[in-house]
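ok trying this again, last paste got cut off
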Amino acid sequence: MKFEDFWYVVCESKQLKLKTILQRTVLDEWLVVFRGNDGKAVVLRDRCMHRNSRLSHGKICAGKIQCPYHGWVYDKTGKVVAVPAEGENFQLTDARRVLSYDTQEQDGYVYVRLTQSSQEFAPFKMPCYKQPGWETVRVINRFRNNVTNCAENFIDIPHTASVHPGVFRTPSASQLEMTVQRRNGSVFASYRNETTNLGWFTHFLNSQGYEIRHIDSFHMPNITSVEYDMGTHRKLFITSQSIPEAADSTLVYTDVTFNYGIWNKLAQPFVRWTAQYIIRQDVEALNIQWQVIEKYGSNFANTPADTIHVFVESIRNKIAQGEDPRNLPEKSVEIKFWV
């Protein structure tokens, strides 16, 4: 198993019009993204095989892409179908072809897979997307850090009181309990004793102070999902897909999907603003972390509350080693920590 076996978001479906050309990087591979005449998403290596220009700087011609340098034209399979300099002597040949990649569209996203894999993984199903009674706010942010550290940040409670004071949580020395499980390439953390420490929207989200059902999860190789259930019409998912551009760059697509009943439409702009405000704070925190990692390395001193991170790292390390993390032994740990 390797990271290339999985599906990665390259854009939102609505971004990719018939004449649109997008430039993306996934796992250090330069990609050009466009739609063929049939409307299906196409992803090719972003390199003209003639003189090494970038196809993403070219233009769309009848569902094909034309290089901006000498005008070579490539179809949706990556095959060269026109060379202006050869005129009437041009002949089709399979030898003239750039790499093309499999694509899928699901839940309003366009996905790419960089290898023909024997591993049959489907793109992650975004929770409650387009289901009746639910609304989704979608935000995109680039982090100067790697996927592992981004994913760990998104399912980490202890940092929220320090990085997002008042907005998300406030330091209160409250004791929480957590059950962390690792199984089948995923990590699940279930929390207990959470009630009112939810930042700005505590009164709206949980005015009665009931105990909250809160589950954080990680799904190999790059998905995190945070679920809050505070009763009828007070439900929320925050699901992030961390796309590895390079060792120090991760593009994160985040869906905040919520069911607030009659407040759904009114809540949308506030949910978007708050999500982006919180993520900007995380972008800054992870940028600082990466600066230190570049200078001193990534040796961490863990506490019991970091068990969720240790489990995430064990899964991603196995994939990096070419092994299947689903073969790791199942583990379950009970933890107490304070926020």
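PB: full thing came through this time. The mean pLDDT is 94.
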